[in-house]
Amino acid sequence: MCGIVGYIGNEQAQPILLTGLEKLEYRGYDSAGIYVVEHQKGYLFKEVGRIQQLKEATDYSICATYGIGHTRWATHGVPSTQNAHPHQSFDKRFTLVHNGVIENYQELKETYLSHVVLQGQTDTEVIVSLIAYFAQEKQWSAKQSFQYVLSLIHGSYAFALIDNQTPDVIYAAKHKSPLLVGIGSQFNMVCSDAMAGIHQTRQFIELHDGEFVTLTKADVSIEKDGHIIQRQSYTAQIDASDLEKGTYPFYMLKEIDEQPAVLRRIIKEYTKDNQLDIPNDVKQAILTSDRIHIIACGTSYHAGLVGKYYLETFAHIPTEVHIASEFSYHPPLISGKPFFIFISQSGETADSRQALVKINEWNYPSLTLTNVNGSTLSRESNYTLLLHAGPEIAVASTKAYIAQMAVLSIIAYALSHDTLKDAFNLSYELSLVSNAMESIISQKDDIHIFAKTYLKDAKHAFFIGRGLDYLVSLEAALKLKEISYIQTEGFAAGELKHGTIALIEQNTPVFTIITQDETSLNTRGNIQEVKARGAKTCTFVMGKLATKDDQFILPDVSKYLSPLLSIVPSQLLAYYATLELGYDVDKPRNLAKSVTVE
Ligand code: M6R
Predict the structure, then answer these.
(1) Residue pair 291/338 in contact by the 8 Å Cβ criterion
(2) Alpha carbon distance 384, 374 (integer Å)
(3) Three-class SS state of 178
(4) Ligand 1 pocket test: which of 595, 596, 597, 598 has the largest number of ligand atoms within 8 Å of its C-beta?
(5) CA dist 32 → 22, 120, 196, 243, 396 (Å)
(6) pLDDT one-digit tens code per residue, 261-285
(7) Count of Cβ atoms closer than 10 Å to residue 428 Cβ
(8) Which residue, 243, 373, 423, 514, has most beta carbons within 10 Å?
(9) Nearest CA residue ID for atom 2, ligand 1
(10) Radius of gyration of the chain from its Cα atoms, rounded to whole angstroms
(11) pTM of the predicted structure, to 2 decimals
């Protein structure tokens, strides 16, 4: 979702800001802009569409040494140059970029700015004009005026502000939306995540809610409620090559290919004394609870469903899984000693964060599984376990999903009794999965052919399965629909006949996942039912359950771990179907990587 980058130093600002915005592209956006200042004169460039268009529209003859940039994912108002950030105040004195949503902007506009004609429909334009209004009315400095406006705002924000009358300064503020300060020698930066600044520095300071920052090229001052905050910087552990596509045409394909390596890294990171384990304090906290609640969105929610299976099967702990946006406003009846697990690749998802705010108010213990150390969810929960998937850039989550399921299996295993551990070596079984993934990935050309055969002219498609295979069907369907725009349902195979089978027509593609012995025959019966109604069926079947009529054979792995494997052909199918349709695989329409609004 929206991304912010700001730079103040001695170098030319435009290339630094534009590179930062390119690194934020993965979050999803529909327009972008930069504002740069040369000798107290500001220049604004905004474009709808890709950063490449903004690069082409930017004037590089300007020797600007500071500026702010933004990628916008529309919330208030359509994608347009008027609504793109940076926004300027009615008097052009102030320029602002914003990530988040201001809930009371209409009210503020009516109260203070009824005389002002605004250019677009955004909440941000109201805020920047409000800063100008108070600076004029009260004869306040930029900082006084900005801080006063912050006190009037309800909602979420990360802001970066430039005032034409306060040269060589960038102001920033944060509440509920992520923001970091990047520290350099003779320069400083402000950015939504470390990727936007990693081409300049590895040193970052996390900002917390309610903090206000004044940046010059030589200094960073962080304050909250009038008190100066001292906070150590940390070194971002991002390998620059992780951020490049290399020879891959799209990040999604690279990230699918990385999955075997991710699994091996997770095994290494969680091995202690030759056994997969989790830190003792996390283990004890979970073991003293009577019920686990997993909270997540999208793909992470689908991983949570598999996690419930692991926690109940391996560790015998009753577990519920909740969609974060539902949990916050319709919480279930909660038992006496609950423990909450948040799953979020980005660690910034606003729906999950809102649920965590509630959990913290209720004083319940929580653990976050995330790919991003120091992310908001990680900071605000009691414990964090990292996914170690490496930066995931494509909007469609792939390697984070398998990492989430792998870490959940390790948590459940660590909480299980010795009898399970004696009978089942999870580390060995996971390593078999990683080898099996390689074998599937090496057959990607076959899956490319499936994509052409089954999905070329498809308007609708189904993934079906039972038990764990049903849970994977949900994720497989999300993958296909979110990037190819083919309407796809993931369905419990046995449930189709209770209504949804009415949608099966001649040539409707139905993909079936079969990895579980006890349900394979029933699921095959369901395939016959859809076939009889004209469906074009394709099966992804575990080797030992396969027949000569199956289309794609998965190497045999532990039945518990099959979701980590059976999702891979579906990810590739989604990738190739989208490629064939000619859409941008990594940046599907209307979607953002980091969904920072509720
Ligand atoms: O960063 P998170 O894991 O919290 O994100 C949750 C969802 O927004 C995310 O999984 C989304 O569903 C992806 N587009 C799926 O590919």
Answers:
(1) yes
(2) 9
(3) coil
(4) 595
(5) 10, 15, 14, 20, 21
(6) 999 999 999 999 889 999 999 999 9
(7) 11
(8) 514
(9) 344
(10) 25
(11) 0.78
